[in-house]
Amino acid sequence: MSDELGASIRYRFNKYLLFVPDYDGNWLLYNPIHQQVLKIDDEMKIFIENLAKQKNINISLGRVDNKINKLLKTGVIIRYDFDEIEYVVNKYYKEHPSPYTLYVEFIMSWSCNFACIYCYENRIKKSMWGNTLKLGHISKAFEFIDKKMDSDMKLSVDLTGGEPLLISSFPQVQYILNETKKRDGKVYISTNGYTLDIYSDLLNKYQSVISLIRITLDGVKKIHDKRRPLQGGMGTFDKIVENINLLLKKYPYLKTKLAVNTIVDESSVSYVDEYLDYIEKEGWYGKIGLGIGPVGSYGNHGLFPNRKEIFNKLVDIFYKKKNLCKLKYISIDDGIGSTKIANVLIMQRRLPLIAPYRCQAFSPFDNSFVFSPDGYIYRCSLFAENKILPIGKYYPTIEEYHNNLKDIQKRNLLNLSKKYDEKLLPLNSGGCPFRSMSYKKMNDWINKKLTLLDVVEFVDEETIIKTAKLYIDYLKNCRGSVENLEIANGS
Ligand code: SF4
Questions:
Q1: Ligand 1 test: best mutation among 369, 372, 408, 434, most atoms within 8 Å of CB?
Q2: CB of 74 within 8 A of CB of 66?
Q3: Quick one: which of 131, 347, 466, 469 could link to 373 by a disulfide (CB 3.0–4.6 Å)?
Q4: CA 429 to ligand 1 center in whole angstroms
Q5: Which option is the CATH number for 94-360: 3.30.450.40, 3.40.50.1010, 3.20.20.70, 3.90.340.10?
Q6: 396 preceded by cis ω (within 30°)?
Q7: This prediction's pTM
């Protein structure tokens, strides 16, 4: 194409595009770079796929046909020298110049009352067991938080572990709830649910601060008790179910903040059908948030379990007529972001959020802190567990290690794009480096033989399409009429 001065401008195809089937038999052409979705039919899809094979696209100024014009306008065809990743990164920081939220995680204790078969706790050095946050730690942590909090920032507090709601941690949990309330913050608790009866009055007292209580239940009793027993081997299923029903019956404010997550692997996925019936019998659909997905490795598996096959089996279970409409109440998650893309585009009819970093661990802002019982501050619990790259110290004195923070923040979309020529890279910015990390890779990372830029997991196109088709089935069979479901394009 030649510009108004007649000079020729070379064009090419935007390489970060994704075709997703839509409910009406057409396709969504999703462009995450310009945050645009183009609704196209099969003929246009073939036209675009053929065009994409051309290295250069020559367009003569006077005779731009409608098809090409549409593709130019929606960023499908771009100037040859256009840098898609640079554009998406600059756009993000223009729209998000500073953080709105300060993310804090308290690792309450490295101890746990459970002995789950797939938990990274199994490799926690016995020397770390018993390391629990003391009240002195927490008061220093809030001193640090107050230093970092701007007046217009929100405070988001995660309680994790080991197990955060151990009976021995009661005073510390109460202290955190109270201090968070003073700062108008919100608390998210990831618990195994076994002591919820003991904590229920306290949580109810602070129900205005509690945003979410995530409980793990790994399926029906015979499966759950085998996978998530107490230290010593006793089953935990009955007690957890009892506690969930206690919160549902006795605490009207808390019940809306409950979520039950279910982790499956090849040994338990075939029991999901029975488990979905069990949830129905308990009357939990529509009352509590429900999520289900394959187990993660986090350096705990020699060879990472075949996550994709497990997920495909899960999808097949939901294709069953009796389970399909349960998708209204239960979210399926492959853990790397593929299902999320399909859910947002097909079910929620909006555009996925594109961020130039995977999670708060790699946030470019100074707004994410994990307080470990060892008195140091990290960016993620996996760093804390391996005492690697602390970004500061908070107990007994406060110090900051900016070089370590800069090192961690290098794992971002721009640097990943220089290393990986992957069209789906912007959809999850390389994913969580630990989720599929094998035991060997974890050791190589600990021994500095690889960096977190070397460990990536991109969203999976087949999984996006498979999940999209499942959601289309749900829309057609469970949502009544599916007319004109538009998707609002980005700016
Ligand atoms: S790096 Fe992975 S494990 Fe760590 S906070 Fe991010 S998503 Fe979670």
A1: 434
A2: no
A3: 131
A4: 12
A5: 3.20.20.70
A6: yes
A7: 0.91
